[in-house]
Hints:
0% strand; 8 helices; mainly alpha; 168 residues
Amino acid sequence: MQSYSQYIEKARAEQNLVLAVLGGSIGAVVGAVAWAVVTVVTKYQIGLMALAIGFLVGYLARKLGKGVDTIFGVTGAVLSLAGCLLGNLLAACGILSHETGKQIPEILSQLTPLSSIMILTATFQPMDLLFYGFAVYEGYKFSFRRLTQQELADLQLATAPVANQDGQ
């Protein structure tokens, strides 16, 4: 049996922020590409893709990073927002490719930070804020390590009051 402080100590020793960032980044990019493909194919922006990005980022950050500290949630939130923005940018590039006949790699190679901001600003809709908020929340929430059933049982036993000889 271990106490709560011993458990946290052990969990902190196992966490890895670099792996959490790597996992979350992979989730953000994969989610952004999926968002763009769905948007271009359906010709409709589906806000639920933001939820998928938040979940994917958080899940991969948690699995790889095994974090228990707040920085892991913040990392998941930031990467989820970045994934949503990248998804919108890639979707706009995909639509532009379809309309102009230019290949997507050619369009992407011409992007600058300023042109990316201009594209995101031009395609922004107020409803985006709601879905970005959901993605950020999920990215934050899912980036933390969860206690296993055995760990919960051990912690409950460790913190349970000990009965005296009278059974009280």
